Amino acid sequence: MPTMHGMTFRKLRQQFIFPIIRNKFLAEKDALFESFRGVDGGITVCGDGQYDSPGHSAKYCCYTVMHGVSEKILDFRIVQRGLGVGDLETRGLREVLKSLSEKGLHVTNVITDGILQIKSLMRKEFPSIRHSLDVWHLTKVIAKRLRNALKGKEDPDVISKWIKVLKTHLFYAGENCNANPEVLSEIWHSLLFHICNFHDWGTGSYGEFFIEKLQQRRSRSSGVKAPYPMPPKSIFKCGHRDFVNVGENRSIKWVDSESLMFSAIYNVVTDTRLCNCCNVHHCNCLLPPGCLEV
Fold first, then answer.
1. What DSSP designation does 251 have?
2. Omega before 289 cis (within 30°)?
3. Rounded CA gap, 132 and 110, in Å?
4. CA dihedral over 217, 231, 209, 192, signed as positive or negative
5. Which of 10, 37, 200, 239 is 20–30 Å from 69 (CA)?
6. pLDDT tens digits for 2-34?
7. Rounded to a whole number, what is the distance in angstroms from the first to the last CA of the chain?
């Protein structure tokens, strides 16, 4: 059966098919940009990079930016190692944000993972744009730290259950902090009460005593004054309903404040780098977790 010669196919593809696809892509892109121009309060976008190979040997990175509400891809850039200065994802994000600005889109919030270079980029070059971290990426860090701290010391099934508790609580804190980083930190630290079966610690009573005790405990171990956990100022009880199972039939047991499990959870929850303004405070703008992950 006669078929089209390969050279003829490539020629037709180059002359007709590719131009049609490109024109359709650009038309759809312009229509998408037009729908987001002039949005009251600006738009929120989230970005992430995909590499051509795992590890540190990647040569290319495709950085994609998506609208946080509609989950529509706004733009992307492919950057190559060696053709610019800095981290590949940082370069990709810089180029995309500049392109969106040139197209007339007012970006007010950007959500990314926790790459230090991106934090520096947003602080220095885009100070008017609020930068937040994707909580999904942060939960992966939390899970890894708790698993490493208790490896070989506790039942892996019990560790997995507590990792799920920490993840769920961080999502809960991000959803209920009303974009207030101080409230976010306070809700996050309230987990230390809950896991010890304290669900209502009141104003200025046991809550302050317990927090002071924990801060002294951490100060003795590190030799420096511990900034976290923060004393309760507005959160004085758990957010769950009163009929939470507090008996012995729970699938996961309450934690003793002197136990190894509590010590590990405490070190993760109050980790200074995790809690300071570069991490947990930046997770106060919650979107679908890992929405750009492939």
1. S
2. no
3. 6
4. negative
5. 239
6. 677 888 889 989 999 999 999 999 999 999 999
7. 41
